[in-house]
Amino acid sequence: MPEAKYLLVGSSHAGLEALRAIRRLDADGSMAMLTKDSQLPYSPTVLPYVMSGRSKPDAVILRDRAFFDETGCVYAPGQAAQSLDTKARLVTLADGVQWRYERLLIATGAAPAIPPIPGLQSVPFHVLRTLDDAVNLRTRMGLARRAVVLGAGLVGLHAAETLAEAGLAVSVIEMKNQVLPGYIDAKASERIEAAFASHGIKLLLGRTATQVAALDGGVSVTTDDGRAIEGDMLLVATGVKSCTEWLAGSGVEIDRGVLVDDRMRTSAADVWAAGDVAQGLDFASGERQVLGIIPTAVEQGRIAGFDMAGDAKQKPWAGGLPVNTYRFFGRPAVSVGQAAAEGDGFEVVEQEQPRKYRRIVLADNRLVGIITVDDPFDAGIMGELIRRRVDLGAMKDAFLADPTQVGRRLMSEMWR
């Protein structure tokens, strides 16, 4: 039976960062990384570029075989975890092989959430979550003229842009009344929507798909207002869900994800979780939430790795902070924190110009969120101002006029 002092299940950002952290403190402890993916590690953020052909599949890996050889970590692709026995400290794989561990990291990420639309499961459809998905989509879009995309989040919009640039007629169906719901406010959304419309992409906002049916080698999607949207291919991009099914009966406490504390420890002894599968503290609300972004995965992975290796001085998790950067047709949109917040207790300052838009959200003279379109800023600096709850005080007007420069000045003074 194979065994490891450190067993890492999952190979993306959280798992890789945990590996690096562990090796900084324990250079020799036996280690293995298991992943259901058949590839070397890669970032999900590169998938739209593989789909478009701008990046080759073999050019987007995060770590090569030499890295695992140098770090003394067994890398085992194509090994899907099927169950976990925390009492016996065993992970059972889909092929029946069992791995024994001393300390376990759950970093299995998330998978596409497929909505229960009548007829959907009876027709061919695509998702975009793995490298194989991206390669398959690139092949399929070369044979299609029309595409239907369900969902106007980051994945759906990236894919819609790629499909349109490849010459397809694209329709996007989104149940919310704006694109990127949850990331940006309505005015920022309007600017992105206008850009998509100018490139011939039809956005059906505030509409729900009620039926999917096969149609002459393609599909027909019926919406709640009775329209039938036809396409030669269908992409489902309606969100993701944490991959926790294999943990059933393990004793690991699960809500929307694996519940973790401020050191990424789960409810089971010697088991940690990090990344898109982990449900940890949210900075703004103080509640535990799943926050599926790369900066969060990296930081959680680092904290988990140091804790697994016994570092008592490691700084605990202070809470997740949403940070999203998005480029559409060469134009930037960036949001940090509670960028779309409104209501009592919030001061919202919107600055609209013909070629750029900025929305700054304050509470008690402290920054809690910022979003811009066509007006890039230093997201790291803004995040630090939010986390440190910096009182802008007399600098408030100057900050509103030039957030990046004033933010850098403030942080420079605090770092001295």
Brief summary of the model shown:
The protein has 416 residues and is an alpha/beta fold.
Name the helicity range: 25-40%
Determine the CATH superfamily of the largest domain: FAD/NAD(P)-binding domain
Distance between the termini: 53 Å
Return the average pLDDT rounded to an integer.
95
Helix and strand layout, with pairings?
Layout: E1 3-9, H1 13-25, E2 31-34, H2 47-52, H3 65-71, E3 73-76, E4 81-85, E5 90-93, E6 98-106, E7 110-112, H4 131-141, E8 146-150, H5 154-165, E9 169-174, H6 186-198, E10 202-205, E11 209-215, E12 218-223, E13 228-231, E14 233-236, E15 240-242, E16 258-259, E17 271-273, E18 278-281, E19 288-289, H7 294-308, E20 323-328, E21 331-337, E22 347-353, E23 356-363, E24 366-373, H8 379-387, H9 396-401, H10 403-415
Parallel strand pairs: 1-2, 1-6, 2-3, 6-17, 8-9, 8-14, 9-10, 16-18
Antiparallel strand pairs: 4-5, 5-6, 7-15, 11-12, 12-13, 18-19, 20-21, 21-24, 22-23, 23-24
Helix pairs in contact: 1-7, 8-10
